[in-house]
Every structure is written in structure tokens, then in C-alpha cells.
# Entry
Amino acid sequence: MYAMAIGEKGASQVSHPWLDGRLSKVESLSDTVRMWTFLAGNTAKGDLQAVGHDWRCLAQDDHLGGIEAILQTHLFAGYPRTINALATVRGLGVSPGVRVGEVDSSMWTELGEGNCRTIYGSAYDRLRDRIAGLHPDIDRWMVEIGYGRILSRPGLTLRERELCVIAVLAGQNVAPQLSSHLRGAMRAGATPVECTAILEQTDLVWGPEARRQVDIVWGELR
# Structure
């Protein structure tokens, strides 16, 4: 089921079966970014066997991005599944070169506001008012922690992070958030074709009913 290949450094790695032609090939969407979105989606689903398969297929040079894709998933799917996925990949082995310094806490708010503005565009002020109306602390946490401390980290670009977020939200029946982050991914530099390609993975991770739901959301945006 998993064909063996020789990586750039000469180490054996496994070819991912989802990259065997069953998904649309998009020139601007590398297999590495695809792999990070697989990891994010399977982490959110809690499918640790699939997380393990994904990790075995990832080249060591891409471990940093893989760790970041898993790590940020706690924002959208909770700590337990993120911790379990991290434990799974740590058990399989992580490149010793994976070292990420955290963003300076004094910059969290500024960076978070910048990322949030990028993702929400002209809807930014309305979003802040709406979330603050629900509870002022969740508004502050969203900006400082979510968009600042987490989504501003090095290791992945904002475009790559948003594509991973799409993969995570696709199976959770959260149409408003999925819609917002599809727009956000495009504002962060993803193309509609790339977003479509990530949504095509929904069948493989979450199943046909989730795919039906995301197709409705995406159809309303296009």
C-alpha cells in the first residue's frame, strides 16, 4: 500500500497513497504542503493511525512544518487531539533540527491584529465587535493568542497555515468559520484552485457527508 522511495538525503521514506493521482494536481500546491494539510486534518479528526502514516511519508526536512501544522490545530480542534498527534509523531521520530523559537510576547497583539486584518479584510472591525460582544476575553485571546502567538510563529507561512486550517475545519460542521478561513486563505495568497484542492481531500479525511457540506460552503463563496 505504501511504496518506498529514497529521499533527498538518501533515507527511505514512504510515498503517500493520497498522492497517487486520486487528488487533483495543482502546480502551485507542493506535495509537502499537501502533506502538512493531511496531518492537520487527521490530527483534528483524532485519527492517530492516519497521523502516523502521514508522518512516515514526510521528509525530515519538512518535519518543522509538520510539527507546526499539528501544533496550531489545538486552536480549532482542542488540546487533547493535538497532544495525542504530537505524541504519535514524537514516538516515530522527529528531526533533531526542529527548533522553533516563540514569537516575543510583546509582539503578540500587534502581529495578531495584522494577521487577523489580513484574513478578515474589510470584515475585521465587524468581527472584533461581534466577538467582543460575545465576551471581551475571547476577543482578546483570539487576537493575542490565536492570530498572534500561534499563527504568527515561524515555520509556516500564513498561506500555508490557512490551508491547514481549511483542512481542519472541513469536517467539523462549522460553516461560518470555514467560509471565513477560505476567504482568509485567499487573502493570505492562496488561489481558489488551491482551496478547491484542499477541500477535495475532505472525502479522504472526514467522509462524504463532510464533503457535501464543504461543497455547499465553497459554492456560496464562488
Notes: The first strand starts at residue 4 and ends at 6. The mean pLDDT is 92.
